[in-house]
Amino acid sequence: MDALATLRSKIPGFPGYGDADARRLCDEEVRAYLGEALAALGTRLGSVGALSERYESTLLRAEFINQSAFRVFELADLDDAHIAAMAAADLAVLELADRAGAVDASSLGAYLDSINAAIDERERLMKTSSSTLT
Description:
The chain is mainly alpha-helical. It has helices at 3-10, 20-45, 52-63, 67-75, 80-98, 108-127. The chain is globular and about 45 Å long.
């Protein structure tokens, strides 16, 4: 199953990346999926101690759109390679979200690092035109 099909199996009605409205909804759906997993993790772990600032910062990234990244992505002329790369990046975020139930206090720092790296990659792709995609 390709990344887009897997995304649609995890998020029923996932619209794909065909136009600005679909891309906005995709972004919202991916961030909501991650945000719900992070919120449940925070509830389960309670106080995250020294990692609370990093946890809150990561949760905020899930809650709010990155306007500087999305502004480019919203109106971009995406080719098949860019769509495939974006779907893979979004799927990576969802797969990390799915692992939240296995995270404990000792693995939280590494988990947050992984999530932030995945969000960074997704935002890098949003800011990249198809002609410069590497």
